[in-house]
Fold this sequence. Notes:
The structure is a homodimer. Chain A is 43% helix and 19% strand. By secondary structure, chain A is α/β, with parallel strands linked by helices. The first copy, chain A, has a single domain, classed as Aldolase class I (TIM Barrel, Alpha-Beta Barrel). An eight-stranded parallel beta barrel of chain A has the order 1-2-3-4-5-6-7-8, surrounded by six helices. In chain A, helix 1 links the parallel strand 1 (2-7) and strand 2 (28-31). In chain A, helix 4 (66-75) runs parallel beside helix 5 (89-101), helix 7 packs parallel to helix 8 (168-177) and helix 8 (168-177) runs parallel beside helix 10. The radius of gyration of chain A is 16 Å and the shape is globular. Chain A starts with a strand and ends with a helix.
Amino acid sequence: MKLQTAIDRVSLTEACHLAAQLDGKTDIIEMGTSLVKDYGNLAIEKLRGVIHHSELLVDSKTIDEGAYEFNQGFKFGADIITVMGAASYDTLQVCYEVSQQINKTMMIDLLEVSDEKIKKILDFPQAIYTLHHSIDKKDQQDAVASVSDFHQKFPQINRLAIAGGIDLKQATALAQQNLVEVVIVGSKITKASSMNEAVNEFMKEIKGYDSNNYERNK
Amino acid sequence: MKLQTAIDRVSLTEACHLAAQLDGKTDIIEMGTSLVKDYGNLAIEKLRGVIHHSELLVDSKTIDEGAYEFNQGFKFGADIITVMGAASYDTLQVCYEVSQQINKTMMIDLLEVSDEKIKKILDFPQAIYTLHHSIDKKDQQDAVASVSDFHQKFPQINRLAIAGGIDLKQATALAQQNLVEVVIVGSKITKASSMNEAVNEFMKEIKGYDSNNYERNK
């Protein structure tokens, strides 16, 4: 299981500072939607400039104009870009085509997507499908149960991720469950009193090794 | 009926140039999602700086983190911000609260939203609900028929807009139909050989007067 660490709601300078610290200590560094919305795709280059070991995911949450947004995101340095499962099939298809053509990855955000809609968007085998609990919702999700339930309904999806308030205990349980390829963690790492210790702790729990030795163990 | 003119897929410098030309000649100037994604919310200020008569809509297409995105957008100068109807009810609610608190407007983009979902998000009386045909879809919409159909299904929504490939003929028919508050036009104006003539022609058709005398006629 990979750890994706999301950076959100900070200045671009602070985001670059955090990304430089996280580089190589988490599998994927996420430029959160708040950074995309505040600073734009052109700021991807700034983050790309300080990331040499981890992958860079841009949480674009594209929902229309798929080709334009995906081409821009990859041009400025993204390895993975998100598209909403709520988008039209045609949007998902064009995002997938752009990603596949240049060997990059599309992540489909399933925020608020019904099972009926999911059934219609199952044919992107190289895409990562992300179970996502809205940050604006007041209730909590049971991550392991959500994944188990989803896997039973859609066993054909073999690249899965999960996001939304995941803490260390949930991440550990998800690693044991072994159905999810990527676990996405935000403030539990980036707002921890020591970010370095927090990311290290997550990596140890989910991978069984010290992220300070990540490059050696990869 | 108001005319909203959308600026998309140009450099920020060009967008400011177009906005300055359109100011006062269209009711609403839209900073398109492509500009938000490329340059970020901070660029709203640049457009705001050249717009003195028209309203400024930021097509944020917010789908989560509603309070953060709406507060940022309004802070930097938006009069109207878009949220996706596909977002969770909680996201829509918080965007509405932020908008109402400071007397600004929320526009709900109904792109790919089912009737079942629409039924659950009818309780935002001051919001503008936008029928939106995805730019990535290969088929065309019949704007007048879409509005008529929608109005029959949801007569309680009295602030309506429509977007997606609207041309002069469709805009004229929509004005005659008299159900829509805002018609949204993009490339048919901004990519016309003469943008000034094009915006003038749309305003003449839908308002019955010359947009060069807009301020006098308002």
